[in-house]
Amino acid sequence: MASHLYNDTAVVLRTYKLGEADRIVVLLTEEHGKVRAVAKGVRKTMSRFGARLEPMSHVKVLLAQGRELDIVSQAEAVESLAPLMADLDHLTSGIAVLEAADQMALDREPNRGLYRMVVGALRTIAADGGPLVVPAFFWKLLAAEGVQPELHACVRCGEPGPLVAFDMDQGGALCRTCRTGAPLSDDALDVMRMILGGRLNDALALPRSPTTHEVATHATKALEHHIERRLRTVAMFETH
Ligand SMILES: [Zn+2]
Fold first, then answer.
1. Beta carbons of 41 and 26 less than 8 angstroms apart
2. Which of 32, 129, 138, 233 counts the most CB atoms within 10 A of its CB?
3. Which numeric CATH code is attached to 1-129?
């Protein structure tokens, strides 16, 4: 029986070796969710895929459906995201985006929103999008997962302010009486409201400062917290 072929557009999340000459590429596709596929012969010099299947590559692919792993039949670059590779800061940011996407994406479960967010974040990084591209990506990712933090009133008592602490365990910002978690500055709270309240471009235009650093720290902790909780939930389902 001839194997089923399908086209898709994808970002390469990561790759790993398979045998002497082959590589497995983990793709975040537009239409088919996360797909693992074998790229045959990529580790030989003169591979027909060249550098098109490296992490962060944005590619059009023709895939052959396999029993466990699909097979990459063709790969063609959609655009060059070379500026991502030319600068260490860009590279580090790009990897952070890929890792977070890899944690969130489910095998063969289409998630076009996630695909678009990843492509958008990588393009913004390549275009020197400022210090908040990755934190903003994390917050948007959490919001898309349904865990948008409460930033407009104390998450425990509803007091409108002042809000002085942030705790993702509680689900957002907290007042002086209820405070747990990490201290939250007024400026960082403003920036988080910008990112999650439809003023992303204003936030991305901000220069690096202690405030952007604080926002990045809250974002990273919130994402880690969410991923841990998800992993625990998965483990619970698996042991029952
Ligand atoms: Zn409170």
1. no
2. 138
3. 2.40.50.140
Locate the domains of the chain by residue range.
1-129, 133-240
In the structure, ligand 1 is a single-atom ion and the residues with CB under 5 Å from it are 154, 156-157, 159, 175, 178
Residue 198 has which token pair? 């439809």
Structure pTM?
A: 0.90
Peptide bond between residue 162 and the one before it cis (omega within 30 degrees of 0): yes
- d(Cα 134, Cα 217) in Å, to the nearest integer? 11
What is the spatial distance between Cα 158 and Cα 96, in angstroms, rounded to a whole number?
Answer: 34
Distance 211 CA to ligand 1 centre (A): 23
15-45 pLDDT, tens digit each: 998 888 889 999 999 999 999 999 987 766 6
Distance CA 204, CA 206 (A): 6
